[in-house]
Amino acid sequence: MKTAARAMGAANGRLLLTVLVLSLASLKPALANGDDLQLPVLLAKLKDRGYPRHGGRAAVFLGDPGLWLPFLQQNHVAPVSAAELRAIPDESVDLAVVGRGAGVDFGLVDRVLKVGGVAAVFAASPSPPQLPGNYKVVVFAPREGAVAAEKTGTSSGSVAALPHHRKLLAVPGNKEDVLDGLEGVLLEPPQKRHAIRRLRPKYLPELTGDSLEGYRRRVFIDVAPAPGGGAASWFMKHYPRGRHEFESVRLTAAGEAAEGIGDWLEGNVGEEDYVVVKAGVEAAEEMLRKGAAVVRRVDELFLDCGEGGGGGSSNSGRRPYWQCLALYGRLRDQGVAVHQWWSGMLR
């Protein structure tokens, strides 16, 4: 009896191994071409956010499904042409996926989509697509080159560009997607200069696919405790600016002078500007004290823990390093892409 059981167990083990090998083999074509996984990844993110709402099952795909066709069929997403879309009743669809190069007027999609339904758009170019103003972004997937937005009401006829990443980061799910792509934080200050030189920040435009088009201004602000320094030169050399010029502003603020940084930002940059700041602990704390009105004006921040944060050359006024790490976390929680800054980066 035991011998038969062992034989059956061995046979089951071989069967399981065979099934596993076949499963891995079937995945190879998809893994060889990352595009094959983009739609499944996007729909998985939507499901994690609770979409479609209320168990809605009416879903359509616009464009050429290509290798996605078996996946669409398995998940009951119907490929339709523009002509077939015109025959679908108003506000009867829960999910509409617009493939790259679909060439479909989005007004047709908006007509058939229910309020509370989701439009998932795969961009045909690096520039973000445009959706009517009655849509709220719920998933931003830069790696998949896609945006998904919930229809929040009937169209007013006005068309607005999708919000830039600052507004996307205000949505918890999108904030997690983007900020999770940042480089890891150093739990202890680097002790050797060559270790600092090897640090490679993962810049926000690289994570979001933002071309930096469409902003009123692009500004780099260096908040330092004393005149001098080469942060602006480092920024212009290393930051992925594309073809765009950045204004460079240097503010000298140490001690009590840092208390004016929040007011300066509020009065000199707006939410329509793309703003990168390099600042020490005191200035960053002042931004947080001023609240969301100031913090949301900053897209990306290089936090210098050496300026009163545990990594400077002088012990006077130095804070425990863990306090700077805590500040780093608070800034990220507010939707700011934060990097650690070390003076050795300039050498």
TrEMBL record:
Q: Which Pfam families match?
A: DUF7870
UniProt entry keywords in alphabetical sequence = Signal
Source domain of life: Eukaryota
Presence of the UniProt keyword Signal in the record: yes
- List where this protein forms a coiled coil: none
Give the residue range of the signal peptide: 1-32
- Domain (DUF7870) spans 179-342
Q: Which InterPro entries match?
A: DUF7870
What is the protein name given in its UniProt record? DUF7870 domain-containing protein
- Organism from which the protein derives: Urochloa decumbens
Task: Determine if Signal is one of this entry's keywords.
Answer: yes
